[in-house]
Amino acid sequence: MILVSSCLAGLQVRYNSTHCLDLKISKLIEENKAIPVCPELLGGFSTPREPAEIIGGNGDDVLNGKAKVVEKSGRDVTELYIKGAYTTLKKARDVNATVVVLKEYSPSCGSSMIYNGEFIGERITGNGVTTALLKRNGLQVMSEEQFADMVLM
Questions:
Q1: How many domains in the chain?
Q2: Per the count of CB atoms within 10 A, which of 49, 76, 137, 145 is most buried?
Q3: Residue span of the structural domain in which 24 resides
Q4: pTM of the predicted structure, to 2 decimals
């Protein structure tokens, strides 16, 4: 089974109530080969919500207690991001996910790039909180961009 970001499946769950529909991923869901998941909603957020970025590092640093996830207004939402990451890990294990495809640049889901924590649209190399936790637990995580380059059976 493949676990995918809900926004890539066309669900309007992003912070600004939009989606990032990926037709290849949508087709996998229709064929019951993929299951959508949104770590931020699983962590307790609603839609819409204030944008958030990782301050002081990346997802690994958040899990290690060395960085925080903060909303644009300054509210620390680290615990909700960690809760969403662990709930996503449980879901991945429950469905025996072999691959997890998550939305690039997200503070939860970024798998190679995230925003730099200054809310200026600048990106840096790093994992989001959920991606970091899934990778620590041996799951293969990739972005929608990497997934598009893959050739599936």
A1: 1
A2: 49
A3: 2-149
A4: 0.95
